[in-house]
């Protein structure tokens, strides 16, 4: 059976379902419509549609349906049980398609047959959709401190050389096969065999090797003393559309109690992309690494979009992938399990992304880095819909790429699906995260962003050097060059 394209609208009294029926001969006697509480089923072979609404419906004489031949669609009117009740997120059609008894992604198979396990079926429907009180309690108990706990014991599969990575650490044995096809986002040697701490070690080494003090110093001096010879002024002056949206609705959000969101609209292409997402629930023991992944992806996306003043290029997928450690280094842990000095994971996230942003992109500017953190703040303040819209846009750079598509399979598809779910991404946690992240990003300065480099020609020893020190050396060099002119 085929799932037709459809859209849903509402007023105070009715829900309106518009179903597209392409290239079939319509026969009214073959149409079957079932309405049961919040469940709506439409069947007209070869089409079948099953929707679950956030509120209750009624099946009475007010139910109407009509076929519109010119539009090749059938329009169905369904009364609400409670007149005046507003059904949230009816434009997120993929969310309506999700069923309570979806398979749960406890373990996701890789390439090998050994990694396949049966999916878990949820049997307790009453707990599938959390209450608002549960969501608020979850947000209130959330913190971003580094959790002090013993290193997790490796499973038999991981001990055998199949470490997990990707969304919720459920994937394995999927990256090595892409290396021969030119996966230039990957930065790991033997990525499918490396354990989490080893991935972090390789990531830090690669960042130190990739960072070029002369490149950064040159960009710094040009931006400061010859801004007419670079684009940095225009890049810094560009304003994120998410900031404009948030500023526009800020007064409305402040006056509205409870969890609110900026009314972000999704176009038809975005709705189609959401409809193609995997429909399953997720057993997530600790959602914090997923939120850190969201922050890293948003920063990488904002950096790329701001660098191109709202546009994208053929290199956008590479840039976003390189900047995001969960993609390029399969690193969702970010901090070594033996590191007991760091107290805040958000500080670790900020330092990680700033190091990468000053090592890989074409434009490497510290003021640009800070502006991007501001952009991330406004995306997070736009709530689930803002985050979903941004990550869907980032996902498009990977979805049809011959090699990069693998990152959709191991992370981006599941991440978008999890954000979409009621029991996934939490609006209050996003608001908490936005404020905590902004505070942490403001507390990190140039002296905190440190690389290990060989700084003198007559030495082969690595020594720590901060962005602040590099700028001071650049200033001294510039003044010396000017004094000789």
> Please, how many helices?
18
What's the overall average pLDDT, rounded?
87
Q: List low-confidence stretches.
A: 103-128
- Written as H for each helix and E for each strand, in order along the chain, the element string is EEEEEEEHEEHHHHHHHHHHHHHHHHEEH
- Major sheet: 4 strands, antiparallel
For the record, give the distance between the C-alpha atoms at the N and C termini, rounded to a whole number: 78 Å
Rg over CA atoms: 25 Å
Percentage of residues assigned to helices:
40-55%
The 3D shape can be described as elongated
Q: Provide the spatial order of strands within the biggest beta sheet.
A: 1-2-7-6
User: What is the number of independent domains?
Assistant: 2
This entry's quaternary arrangement is single chain
Strand content: 5-15%
Helix vs. strand class: alpha+beta
Annotation, overall tally of beta strands:
11
Written description of the protein model:
This protein has two domains: 6-87, Sandwich (Immunoglobulin-like); 156-443, no CATH class. The chain has helices spanning 93-97, 132-140, 156-159, 176-179, 196-210, 213-225, 232-237, 241-255, 268-275, 288-307, 316-323, 325-328, 345-357, 366-381, 383-399, 406-420, 427-443, 467-483; strands spanning 6-10, 14-20, 32-36, 39-44, 47-52, 64-68, 73-79, 103-104, 120-121, 450-453, 463-466. A four-stranded antiparallel sheet has the order 1-2-7-6, with no helix packed on it. A three-stranded antiparallel sheet has the order 3-4-5, with no helix packed on it. β6 (64-68) and β7 (73-79) form a beta hairpin. α14 (366-381) runs antiparallel to α17. It is built from 18 helices and eleven strands.
């Amino acid at each position: 059976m085929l799932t037709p394209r459809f859209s849903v609208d509402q007023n105070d009294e009715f829900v309106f379902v518009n179903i597209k029926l392409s290239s079939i001969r319509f026969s009214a006697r073959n149409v079957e419509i079932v309405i049961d509480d919040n469940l709506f089923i439409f069947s007209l072979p070869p089409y079948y549609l099953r929707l679950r609404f956030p509120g209750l419906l009624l099946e009475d004489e007010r139910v109407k349906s009509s076929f519109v031949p010119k539009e090749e669609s059938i329009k169905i009117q369904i009364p609400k049980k409670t007149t005046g009740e507003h059904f949230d997120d009816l434009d997120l059609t993929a969310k309506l398609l999700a069923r309570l008894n979806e398979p749960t992604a406890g373990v996701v198979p890789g390439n090998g047959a050994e990694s396949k396990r049966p999916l878990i079926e949820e049997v307790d429907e009453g707990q599938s959709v959390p209450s608002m009180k549960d969501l608020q309690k979850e947000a209130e108990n959330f913190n971003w401190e580094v959790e002090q706990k013993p290193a997790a014991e490796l499973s038999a599969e991981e001990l055998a050389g199949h470490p997990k990575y990707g969304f919720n650490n459920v994937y394995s044995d999927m990256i090595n096969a892409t290396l021969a096809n030119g996966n230039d986002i990957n930065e790991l040697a033997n990525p499918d065999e490396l354990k989490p701490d080893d991935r972090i070690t390789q990531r830090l080494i690669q960042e130190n090797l990739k960072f070029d003090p002369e490149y950064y110093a040159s960009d710094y001096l040009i931006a400061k003393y010859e801004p007419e010879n670079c684009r940095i002024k225009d890049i810094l002056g560009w304003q994120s559309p998410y900031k404009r949206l948030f500023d526009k609705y800020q007064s409305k959000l402040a006056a509205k109690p409870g969890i609110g969101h900026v009314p972000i609209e999704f176009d038809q292409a975005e709705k189609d992309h959401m409809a193609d997402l995997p429909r399953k629930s997720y057993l997530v023991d600790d959602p914090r690494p997923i939120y850190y992944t969201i922050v890293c992806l948003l920063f990488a996306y904002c950096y790329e979009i701001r660098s191109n003043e709202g546009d994208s290029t053929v290199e956008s997928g590479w840039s976003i992938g390189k900047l995001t450690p969960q993609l390029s280094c399969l690193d969702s842990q970010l901090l070594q399990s033996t590191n007991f000095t760091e107290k805040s994971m958000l500080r670790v996230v900020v330092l990680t992304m700033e190091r990468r942003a000053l090592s890989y992109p074409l434009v490497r500017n510290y003021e640009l880095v800070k502006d991007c953190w501001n952009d991330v703040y406004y995306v997070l303040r736009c709530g689930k819909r803002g985050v979903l819209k941004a990550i869907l846009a980032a996902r498009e750079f990977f979805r049809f790429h011959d090699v990069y598509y693998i990152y959709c399979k191991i992370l981006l598809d599941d991440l978008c699906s999890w954000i979409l779910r009621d029991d996934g991404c939490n609006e209050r946690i996003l608001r908490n995260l936005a404020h905590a992240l902004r505070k942490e990003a403001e507390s990190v300065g140039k002296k905190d962003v440190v690389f290990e480099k060989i700084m003198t020609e007559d030495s082969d020893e690595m020594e720590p050097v901060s962005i602040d020190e590099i700028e001071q050396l650049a200033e001294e060099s510039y003044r010396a060059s000017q004094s000789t002119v």
